[in-house]
Write a structure and sequence with these properties.
single chain; alpha+beta; 2 domains; two-stranded antiparallel sheet; 4 helices; globular
């Protein structure tokens, strides 16, 4: 009897731990980002040091304090391809996935649009967090997507290799 009771307690504990971990990964740490008109979507012009806001509507975003690369956003813009040419493009962008419940953002569809040329990726803000850049993608039909990606300094800092002199000093936490 004691063995069966112990096995049931272990099984129930394992199931509860698994459900808890799943919830925390998919839902628990995320929160909706309040829209700040004129500040949420900005692109870095070629040769500029600071990004400039672009016109947008239908803004939705999520973020989490547990990681600097959990930010995802969707928006719409009326900028044309010619107007977007003045901004700094990003080579080989890799959209990061979002939780399934954030249904305006589909990383696979964004990646396919980038690969086929139906979308362009631009630098939004460099070092929005230490070692993390904000990437903004705009499709030919005016849909836009935003995510954070590690830059070279971030990749070095987070994998434990020596950062080097080309990277800014890491802020004290």
């Amino acid at each position: 009897m004691t063995g069966k009771l112990l096995a049931i307690i272990l099984l129930v504990s394992a199931v509860l731990a698994g459900v808890g971990m799943y919830y925390l990964q998919v839902y628990g740490f995320y929160y909706n980002v309040e829209a700040r008109p004129g500040q949420d979507v900005a692109l870095l012009a070629k040769g500029a040091a600071e990004p400039q806001p672009i016109p947008y509507s239908a803004f939705q975003a999520i973020d989490a304090d547990s990681s600097p690369i959990r930010y995802r956003a969707c928006f719409e813009t009326n900028l044309t391809s010619e107007e977007l040419e003045t901004f700094q493009s990003v080579e080989n962008p890799e959209p990061l996935t979002a939780p399934g419940w954030f249904d305006c953002y589909d990383a696979l569809a964004i990646a396919e649009a980038l690969k086929s040329g139906r979308a362009q990726a631009f630098m939004g803000t460099k070092n929005i967090h230490y070692g993390v850049d904000r990437i903004v993608t705009v499709t030919t039909d005016g849909k836009g997507f935003v995510w954070h990606a590690l830059n070279n300094c971030g990749e070095k800092a987070y994998d434990g290799t020596v950062v080097g002199e080309e990277c800014p000093p890491r802020p004290e936490s």
